[in-house]
């Protein structure tokens, strides 16, 4: 069923609520993460100190990170290069190409990788279609670009339906 492909494996408030030790215990060796409204606000050009610290904790745990973003090269490169983070831009999520490219680049398997993002129709759907463990986070900012605003309206409909069917165990923010 299509809606099952929209169900994240996990839902957390933010990247900072992800248990890195648990990832390690689950033999996770890599993270594929979205950028905009997952790591930082969509209009923030650089990482915050909190994000830098989170990335350092992943590195200390031996977990690689690749940013996979639908945004353009200039935006993603400006964010990732100072952090020496691998990235794939113009990813066309939820298609498979960028997700598969990321695991190849990190030399890991899908089973050793989690996908983190703030959108059901790009990050979660893309990750679930390939069998990744997916983690949905609350968007960092309450504002979005035009296409993301459209996606958010569709997400609200899907989440309301999932709640009514008892498929989700969390509450949406008003």
The CATH topology is: Rossmann fold
Radius of gyration, in Å, reads 15 Å
- Biggest sheet details: 6 strands, parallel
Task: Output the structural class.
Answer: alpha/beta
Strand content is 5-15%
Q: What's the architecture in CATH terms?
A: 3-Layer(aba) Sandwich
- What is the CATH domain class? Alpha Beta
Order of helices and strands: HEHEHEHEHEHEH
Helix content: 40-55%
| Parts with pLDDT < 50 across at least 5 consecutive residues | none
Distance between the termini: 27 Å
Number of domains in the coordinates? 1
Number of helices: 7
CATH superfamily: HAD superfamily/HAD-like
Average of the residue pLDDT scores:
89
Q: How are strands sequenced across the largest beta sheet?
A: 1-6-5-2-3-4
Tertiary shape: globular
Tell me the total number of β-strands: 6
List keywords for this structure.
alpha/beta, six-stranded parallel β-sheet, YqeG family HAD IIIA-type phosphatase, 174 residues, Rossmann fold, 7 helices
């Amino acid at each position: 069923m299509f809606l099952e492909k929209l169900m994240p494996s996990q839902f957390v408030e933010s990247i900072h609520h992800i248990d890195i030790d648990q990832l390690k215990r689950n033999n996770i060796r890599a993270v594929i993460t979205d950028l905009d409204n997952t790591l930082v606000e969509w209009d923030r050009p650089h990482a915050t100190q909190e994000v830098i610290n989170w990335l350092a904790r992943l590195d200390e745990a031996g977990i690689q990170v690749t940013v996979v973003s639908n945004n353009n090269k200039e935006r993603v490169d400006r964010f990732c290069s100072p952090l020496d983070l691998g990235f794939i831009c113009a990813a066309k999520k939820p298609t498979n190409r960028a997700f598969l490219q990321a695991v190849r680049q990190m030399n890991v398997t899908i089973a050793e990788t989690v996908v983190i993002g703030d959108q059901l129709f790009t990050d979660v759907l893309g990750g679930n279609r390939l069998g990744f463990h997916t983690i949905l986070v609350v968007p960092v900012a309450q504002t979005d670009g035009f296409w993301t605003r459209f996606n958010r309206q569709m997400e609200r409909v899907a989440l309301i339906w999932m709640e009514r069917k008892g498929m989700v165990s969390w509450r949406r923010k008003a």
